[in-house]
Amino acid sequence: MDKLRAAQSYSPFVLERFLGPMRAETRLGRTLNFVFWAGWQSGRRVLRLVRPLPAAVPAPMAAAPVIEAPKPVEPVRLPDMRTAERWYDDTAPDVSIIILNFNKAELTIKCLASLWEHTTGHSYEIIVVDNGSGAEDFAILAKHHGRSTLVRLEANRFFGEGNNIGFEASRGGFVIFMNNDVTVEPNWLAPLMQPFLAHPDCGVSGPKFVYPDGRLQEAGALLDKEGNAVQLGKFGSPDDPRFNEPRTVDYVSAATVAMRRETFRTVLGFDLMWEPAYYEDSDLCLKIRLLGLKTYYCPTSTVIHHENATSSDQRHGLKLNNIVAINRTKFIERWGDVLRGDAASPSSELFPASPANWTPKATKRAALYTPYNIIPGGGERYLLTIAEALRGAYEVFLVTPELFSRLRILTVGRELGLALDHVHTVSLAQAAAMPRFDLFVAMGNEIVPPVPAMGVKSIFHCQFPFPVSVHELARRWTWWDGYEQLAVNSPFTQRHVEQQMRDCGLPPRPVSVVYPPVDDLGIDEEQLSAKSPVILHVGRFFTGGHCKRQDLLIQTFRDHIHAAGIKAELHLVGSLHPEAEHRDYFLLCQELAKDLPVTFHLNASTTDMKALYRQASVYWHATGLEVDEQLNPEKAEHFGITIVEAMSAGCIPVVVNKGGPRHIVAHGATGYHFDTTKELADHTAAILSANNSAPTLAMRRAAIAAAKQFSKPAFSRFWQELDQSVALEPTN
To answer: Cα(230)–Cα(586) distance, rounded to whole angstroms?
Structure first.
């Protein structure tokens, strides 16, 4: 019987809806040299490299501001703590309850009060993760969090990652994730644990959710073939017998959800692809189903849920108006075959077959620093492949300004095909308090490093020397002394780095070109001569200075390929940044592609990516097309990992004639360069018109051969041989 029809039979109150909730001189001499340079250096290039501080402008006269009296904070009445004194145990708890707070301290305190008063039957601890709240809200929470462990994050890590961080701070054999807009009823915990004792196949347990006005909110949930959620019994009576029988369901809301610790860890927790929010809970339950486990609705455990108390508050600035539709598209791409009954599991592995090694030991310690958010991309591939290359010899710490979870690193490793179970995650403050590392690698996007050196041997990986203000240059000037070597990803970047070292008067350092690591995707001769008329582009969907220009590619396809009647498809693959402006850009691209044979693949799996590379005939890359490389070299593509990936699979690349891509592709031999979108279309049409001819096949083979110089083994050897090198020599 169709699950949607079955759901409707449970109650007349069933409501179908989208799922909810939810980056050889002295030091004095060098300093004087800098002062001289900053004051007297002139010329167009220097003005371009260093942004002057804004001039002081007298502020206009304005009326005195009206200062509102501070709103009185309602005093918080802590409950009788005698129950908590008996059952609370943060040394060896049975259960860890993890709660996120984001600028809703009073709500969180009410949730905590109900837990202290009504939690019995199992020893427990509470982990409260303050997910980047403002100072005032955090101060309230810090004063009243009582019997709980408070984890403070200076940045909002969003719903899934915030919970992952809370999980890694916990100790219980079971974990319960709970929204801060929940208050629990008496005897809520023991029944929620009962399914794990009664059913060996229980992987997840969820309670009965009730609205504050007494109506039923959810008695478990089902998923239809389109990825929509059906909350059973919604708006009905919580006393209705139909909703007071235990049953298995597709998923339960993460507003309160319980599972074994090992289960959550095995499936790599909440997946980063859903950020900032929505669909994390249904995805988690479906991943757990792949372990052969089920999700149970437990009607004898009741919690009151205010629903969307944080997400519906527009003051958070997350602009979640379009995220449900976007994440539903991603959800269908991952789980559509499963929901339709066409497959038992997704087309790719979502977590490792065996549990990760969580206690790696090695004789040496290395730290890798990035100032950017961790999502699958070129910079992350570069840094995390260093981590993999050091596996076995080093205990590796990934350092970021604010903490990320190890679960996230393992997930990114899954996406990039890297083994990262030996990698710890620490914040910059935590790393600074640790003993000096044997090896330290810092990644940055200016000519001076982003942090002081922290290693016996310290290397600065400069992705590109973007403009830096005089103030920042002066602030980081002395940090340069701690780094003995620079690593860059292309001759294009090397040239600009060496020029800026001279322009800024920095003491010279060796600069080695260490090409980014690229997996050889491989393709046999039969596949090579059976390519489809598919044009492929791979790159993140984001707007700003280094936009991949999917919008321009779509317009070129419309104006010059589709309009000319050329039989072809355009496939656009990439991850999506969680911020609202990037989501808006993605939706713009979708609108531009209406009525065209254009397919979007958000967060495509490694398996699907490889299949697309092997199928595609042409690879397009246009980053930096509309910029003047002489005036704005930083806006050109600096290398182009996806170009090399495409070449390794026999795609013929057609790339913009500037920056790093110009050095990767030999025009007319391994691919083509273009300066205008008309040239891009003309080269593409010529390839497709002779798609599997002898000359085209010869170019494909030449591209495959050229891609081998950018191999992952060559990249790994550079970092593995640092121990044997007293002074590294630059690679030309």
So the answer is: 28
What are the residues whose beta carbons fall under 8 Å from the beta carbon of 495, sequence distance 6 or more? none
- The DSSP annotation for 381-393 comes to HHHHHHHHHTBTT
Task: Answer with the residue of higher pLDDT: 375 or 427.
Answer: 427
- Report the helix count and the strand count for the chain, using DSSP H and E: 25, 26
| Least trusted range by pLDDT, from 125-129, 279-283, 355-359, 603-607 | 355-359
C-alpha neighbours within 13 Å on the C-beta side of residue 135 = 0
3-state SS of 85-110? HHHECCCCCCEEEEEEECCCHHHHHH
Taking the mean position of all CA atoms in its chain, how far away is CA 257?
Answer: 23
| pLDDT tens, position by position, 190-229 | 999 999 999 999 999 999 999 999 999 999 999 999 999 9
Tokens of 46: 């220097």
At 255, give phi and psi (nearest 5°).
-60, -30
Exposure b/e, 568-606, CB count within 10 A at least 16 = b: bbbbbbbbbbbbbebbebbeebbebbeeebbebbbbbbe
Please give the C-alpha separations between residue 604 and each of 269, 277, 328, 399, 544, in angstroms, as whole numbers. Answer: 19, 19, 14, 27, 23
pLDDT of residue 659: 83
Beta bridge partners of 675: none
- pLDDT category at 41 given cuts 50, 70, 90 is very low
The overall average pLDDT reported for the chain is 86
- Say how many CA atoms lie within 13 Å of 384 toward its Cβ: 30
Q: Which residue has the tokens 């005897």?
A: 187
User: Can you read off the two tokens belonging to residue 465?
Assistant: 């020397």
pLDDT at 667 over 50: yes
Helices (H), 119-223: 135-144, 158-168, 189-198
pLDDT value at residue 66: 37
8 Å CB contact between 398 and 428: no
Q: Quick one: what percent of the chain has pLDDT higher than 70? A: 83
Where does the pLDDT of residue 604 fall: very low under 50, low under 70, confident under 90, or very high at 90 and above? confident
- Tell me the pLDDT tens digit for each residue of 623-632: 888 766 555 6
Which pTM was predicted?
A: 0.84
- Cα–Cα distance measured from residue 455 to residue 367, given in angstroms and rounded to the nearest whole number: 8
Both structure tokens of 282: 């249904």
CA 272/CA 616 separation, integer angstroms: 28
The answer to whether 440 touches 459, Cβ cutoff 8 Å, is yes
Distance CA 654, CA 570 (A): 14
Q: Is residue 462 within a helix (H) or strand (E), and if so which, with residue range?
A: strand 455-462
Please check whether residue 468 is in contact with residue 446, taking contact to mean a CB–CB distance below 8 angstroms.
yes
**DSSP-assigned states of every residue in 212-245:** TTS-EEES-EEE-TTS-EEETTTTS-TT-GGGSS
Q: Report, as an integer, the average pLDDT of 345-360.
A: 67
CA separation for the pair 193, 229 (Å, rounded):
25
Q: Which residue in 275, 296, 278 sits closest to 200, CA to CA?
A: 296
| Rounded distance between C-alpha atoms, residue 369 and residue 227, angstroms | 38
Roughly how many angstroms between the first and final C-alpha of the chain, as a whole number? 67
Angle, CA of 184, 188 and 190, to the nearest 5°:
150
